[in-house]
From TrEMBL:
It catalyses: alpha-D-glucosaminyl-[heparan sulfate](n) + 3'-phosphoadenylyl sulfate = 3-sulfo-alpha-D-glucosaminyl-[heparan sulfate](n) + adenosine 3',5'-bisphosphate + H(+). GO terms for biological process: glycosaminoglycan biosynthetic process. This is Sulfotransferase. GO terms for molecular function: [heparan sulfate]-glucosamine 3-sulfotransferase activity. It is found in: Golgi apparatus lumen. It comes from Hippocampus comes. Residues 48-269 form the Sulfotransferase domain. It comes from the Eukaryota.
């Protein structure tokens, strides 16, 4: 029902707003703003996504998208325009959203990622209204580790923008107690966000990738994703090689080698162990609820 209402809303909003400048795409055949004068490869078209990587922020969404892009039947785009979250984007209509997708061949499926969707209150209903049978991918890692990683990203962003920064303990603790209002903690309450998605999508339609496993041994996790997306198995062990210096896997496909962007391996701060323990015990209860919701457990330390 909720899904239907949003459908009607979106239908009304089908305006033909000017398409966005360009999509940031990882797929070899996609165009970007530098070559807008080129025409799209013959036989390709822009189509709405068949699958969306909905999050979680700092869970390994970029790695997952890049690794999936190895598959010849996947056309991947890191859209990240928050189409379904932000009313000014949503009001531009589905036509505009489709324009953000990569050009793809008819035998390909399109996958986009917007990591903020998992914790968004609007996205589940609106995505359901667009395509109630869409396949959702969610990549998660230890929620406490994710908090530290989230902090680290914000920390470096603030440094780059010459904004003041704080020690992580100052954000995690307020008046001697865990500051549960801290956004990074809120984003790690997987059970709360998952409940919102399960109101609109059956569990079978949301495949959860174990982000810790993906980083340590990518192939088995990717094979599960291939099966979930009904793709023939095409990703193989030789598509990955371990980079000692970086300490994680790089990708080899179509004669190209690529490693994840430098910022993805930023060193984490050493967190006061008492504070970290407080954080872990707070999250413990939430991940137990989460395991019940998804009928699966994760080996989070
Ligand atoms: C909705 O998603 C499913 C699953 O990926 C896909 O098969 C179908 O073509 C999509 N429908 C539209 C209208 O894009
Ligand atoms: C491994 O990572 C280092 C450090 O980022 C980089 O300079 C080097 O080119 C990488 N080597 C390969 C083979 O990818
Ligand atoms: C860690 O924080 C607690 C208070 O939250 C403090 O009592 C303790 O001294 C701190 N430990 C270190 C090693 O800084
Ligand atoms: C739940 O997550 C917390 C925080 O990461 C962790 O300390 C705890 O061991 C986890 N519980 C289980 C059962 O995995």
């Amino acid at each position: 029902m909720a899904c239907f209402l949003a459908s009607a809303f979106l239908f009304i909003l089908q305006t033909f707003a000017a398409p966005p400048q360009a999509s940031i795409s990882l797929n070899g055949i996609n165009l970007n703003d530098e070559d807008v004068t080129l025409s799209p490869p013959p036989g390709t078209s822009k189509r709405p996504p068949h699958s969306i990587i909905i999050g979680v922020r700092k869970g390994g969404t970029r790695a997952l998208l890049e690794m999936l892009d190895i598959h010849p039947e996947v056309a991947a785009a890191a859209t990240e325009v928050h189409f379904f979250d932000w009313d000014e984007n949503y009001a531009k209509g589905l036509e505009w959203y489709r324009e953000l997708m990569p050009y793809s061949y008819p035998h390909q499926i399109t996958v986009e990622k917007t990591p903020g969707y998992f914790t968004s209150t609007l996205a589940p209903e609106r995505i359901c209204a667009m395509n109630s049978s869409i396949k959702l991918l969610l990549i998660l890692r230890d929620p406490a580790e994710r908090v530290v990683s989230d902090y680290t990203q914000v920390y470096f962003n603030r440094l780059e923008n010459h904004k003041p920064v704080q020690a992580i303990e100052n954000l995690l603790v307020r008046n001697g107690a865990l500051n549960t209002g801290y956004k990074a903690i809120q984003r790690s309450l997987y059970d709360i966000h998952m409940r919102n998605w399960l109101r609109h999508f059956p569990l079978e339609q949301i495949h959860i990738v174990d982000g810790d496993l993906l980083i340590h041994d990518p192939l088995p996790e990717l094979q599960k994703v291939e099966r979930f997306l009904n793709l023939p198995p095409r990703i193989v062990a030789s598509n990955f090689y371990f980079n000692q210096t970086k300490g994680f896997y790089c990708i080899r496909s179509d004669g190209r080698e690529r490693c994840l962007h430098e910022s993805k391996g930023r060193p984490h701060p050493v967190v006061n162990s008492t504070v970290l323990q407080q954080l872990r015990s707070y999250l413990q209860e939430h991940n137990r609820t989460f395991f019940r919701l998804v009928k699966r457990t994760f080996n989070w330390q």
